[in-house]
Structures are given as C-alpha cells and as structure tokens.
Amino acid sequence: MSEVKAFSYALVSQAEIARRIGLKPSHLARLLELYPDQLPRPILTTSEKKTQKYWRRSALAGFEAFLEAEPVTKEEIDSCPQKIIHEISFESVLELAKARKIPADSLLWWIEDKYGTVAHVAAVHGWLPVGFSQWELATKDGRTVAHFAAAGGCLPAGFDKWELASKSGWTVAHTAASNGKLPDGFDRWELATPDGFTVAHAAAMHGHLPEGFDQWELATKFGCTVAQYAAMRGHLPEGFDRWELKDKDGKTVAHAAAMNGKLPKGFDRWELADGKGKTVRQVHEERFKMRKVAGGRREGGQ
C-alpha cells in the first residue's frame, strides 16, 4: 500500500483532506489500495472563490476517483505566495453525481455532510447510477439511501430490500407508502414498526392504498386497524362495507369516521354500537353539538 504523503509549510496531508470530507481511516485505506496515485490534490490559491470555481470546473469536466492528479510538489508550494488549501467539497462531489460521473461502486458515495452522504442526496433526485447497490448506507438516525430514494420515487425496478429500517423501525416500504411511491403489485403490507404500525397503515394515512386492497383488519399493537386509519382521514374507498371492524377498545371503523366527520354520503349503519354500547348516531350527534358550541364561542369572542 502506498504511503500518504505529508507536507510541511501551510499544507495538510492527503489523509487530512480525506478526514475533512468525512472518510474514516478504513475508507482511506481502501482508497489507497484502489487509487494509490489519485487521492485529492491540494490546491494552492490566493482566492477561496477561485478555488471553488476550480473544483466546480473539475466536477463538470468529469474528474472522478478523487481527481486524477499528481501530489503537489515542493516547488509548487514554494512558488505560492499565500498557502491556502481547499479540500474537495460536498457540493463538488454532488456535481459529479448529478452529471452521472460516479461509478456505482465508488467510495465517493460515502462522503457526507451533517444531513447524510452524497448517495442520500443523489437518491432523492434520481442521480444514482444503474447497478448501485450501497442501499444500506445510513444517516445518524438510521435512514438508509433506500429510504431517500423511496421518498423521491427513485428506487429501481425490482428493488426488494423493503425491510431495511431506520433506528425507529420505519422501513423503506413505509417511506414509499407514505409518499405514494410503492410499485404496482407490492404485497408486503404486513411489514411493521416495533409498535405494529404496518406499511398498510402508512399508506392508509395518506390515501395511497391501491384499488382492491382488502387487508383492512391489520392492526397495530394498540389494536387500531388499517380501516380505522383510513376512516379517520376520509380515505376509505367507495363501497367500503366493513364498518363493524373494531379496535381493542371496541371502537368500530364507523365510529372512527364519525368522530372525524368522515362518514360518506348515504351511510346507513347508524345503530352500530361500540364496545360500550354507544352508537354511531350518538357519536355523530355529539360531534355536531361540540362544533356548534365551538362556533358560538368564536362568534361571541370568547
């Protein structure tokens, strides 16, 4: 393995540059094996603005694998009146990603800022190349590159790692479901967070359940069904007829809809009762009275 050259004067070593852009020692060691002569070239300039322009031009020109260049020489150091170094910036590597200049297996995807890696940002925008497989790269809270791609609807056809989860247990499938980005034919609705919140619940909350969905009885650990989540937000399909489904407290889907003013026109199951004997009609009337009282207070300035 080649040694990382360290320079005196006002310069830092290539290892320090790698550290600044977020590479761990193990990453740097691997880079040295793959690209022993292609680590970042320290740039000497009297103008930081000029330096940034240099890196932007380099990115647009398609320089890759940490820019193919020889290490700086002592002569270059001595000839520079003001020794300023500008390391590879997160933004310049994003330019490479946007221009589709980073290979699928490159370590450049690992470079990170406080919000995530280059791969995370590229995933949201659909800049990841064909053959990309580093889906497990994660932010501090455990959200993977796949989570970000799912949010943007940019997962490739045939993606099957739906169970990848953040530290909270939120899977890639939950993210896709919440954003209406699940593929046609998706069938892993039972994937759940530790509290039993399934992918189907996530889709129901936002009105993204597909036509023909029928697993309404899937429930969280607290007993709340998918149907109840859809009912509370007015996302039940036309013709829904399983109003009697109950949570562990005996509250039916119809009660959940009535409490939130989401009963459909033509609803006729008014005498359906919950576990305590309260009917849907009673819940509906109580909600009407509460809204009327609240409206009167607003009009009276109370």
Output the helix-strand order: HHHHHEEHHHHHHH
Overall average residue pLDDT: 77
N→C terminal distance = 77 Å
The CATH homologous superfamily name of the largest domain equals Ankyrin repeat-containing domain
CATH topology of the largest domain: Serine Threonine Protein Phosphatase 5, Tetratricopeptide repeat
Helix content: 25-40%
Number of domains: 3
- Identify the CATH class of the largest domain: Mainly Alpha
Q: Over all CA atoms, what is the radius of gyration? A: 28 Å
- Order of strands, widest sheet: 1-2
For the secondary structure, the number of strands is 2
- The helix/strand class is mainly alpha
How much beta, percentage-wise? Answer: under 5%
The main sheet comes to: 2 strands, antiparallel
Structural features, described:
With 302 residues, this protein is an all-alpha fold. It has three domains: 88 residues, no CATH class; 72 residues, Ankyrin repeat-containing domain (Serine Threonine Protein Phosphatase 5, Tetratricopeptide repeat), CATH 1.25.40; 114 residues, Serine Threonine Protein Phosphatase 5, Tetratricopeptide repeat, CATH 1.25.40. The chain has twelve helices and two strands. The chain has a two-stranded antiparallel ribbon. α3 packs parallel to α5 and α8 runs parallel beside α9. The longest helix has 20 residues. It is elongated. The chain starts with 13 loop residues before the first helix and ends with a helix.
